[in-house]
Amino acid sequence: MTHIPFGTAGAGQWAVEITPESAGWTYCGLRIADGPVEFETGEEEMLVLPLSGSFDVVADGVSVSLHGRESVFAAVSDFVYVPIGAKVTITGTGRVALPSARATRRFPVRYGPAADVPVEIRGSGQASRQVNNFCAPDAFACDRLLAVEVLTPEGNWSSYPPHKHDELSEREAVLEEIYYFEGGPGYQRVYGTHEVLAEVSAGDVVLVPHGYHGPSMAAPGYDLYYLNVLAGPADERSMVCCDDPRHAWIRASWADQAVDPRVPMTKAAR
C-alpha cells in the first residue's frame, strides 16, 4: 500500500512504524511515537525530531535535551542523531518522529540545534514553500539517511514541478522516499510507474519507491507540513532529481513571480 492512512501502520509503542521490510524496499524507514519509548536501533541510523512537545533522549550513555516546539507550524526544531547499534530511551510529552536508514558506518550521537538548521525558500508565486534542510547532505553528516521538512501555505503547491530519483545518472540519485504529513487536508500525487492521488492529513504516510511524485497540494484554508525521509544505495549522499520534462519549464517561470510573503512560515524558537 503506497498511501498509508494514520492508524493503519502502528505497532506496539509506535503510532507509525515503517520499516524497509514493511515498505518492500531496502533502506528507508520512519517511526512516530506519542510519548516515551525505549528501543534499540540495530542496523538503522536515526534522528529524533520533535513534531510537538519536548523530549529527553539517552543514547549510547549520552543524554540530550530537545527543546522541541509546540507544533510543526510554530517553529523549527532541534534534533539528535543516534547511530546503529545503540540503545535509546526517549521521555517527554508530545509527538516525536524518528526518520531512519539502514547503515553500515557508525557516527557518534550528535545534537542538532534549531538555530543551525538551514531554512530555504523554494519556488515562488503559488509554488512558494519553506524547506527546513536539517539533514540534507550539506547540512548534517550521516551514512545514508536524508531528511527535510516542507511547509506549504494553504492554497499553494510544493514538490513541484514533479520529479523522480529512481535511476542512477549524473543528475539523478536512486532514493527511496517517505512523506509523513501534519496539518491538511491536502493532496499528494505519485505517478509514472504506479498511480496515487490521495487526500492526506495529520499522521498519514505516502511511500515513493519510484516514479514521479508531486505536487503536494495544500487545500485552501489548510496549511500542509510533510517530513521527507530518503535513503539509497550510494556511498555519497545526494538529493539530485530529475523533473518531469513536461513540467520542467515551471522552474524558469518563477523568475517573473514574487515569492509568497507567507514564507518562511517558521524559524528557530528563541
Automatic annotation (TrEMBL):
GO terms for molecular function: glucuronate isomerase activity. It holds the Pfam family KduI. SUPFAM superfamilies: RmlC-like cupins (SSF51182). Keywords: Isomerase. GO terms for biological process: inositol catabolic process. This is 5-deoxy-glucuronate isomerase. It comes from Acrocarpospora corrugata.
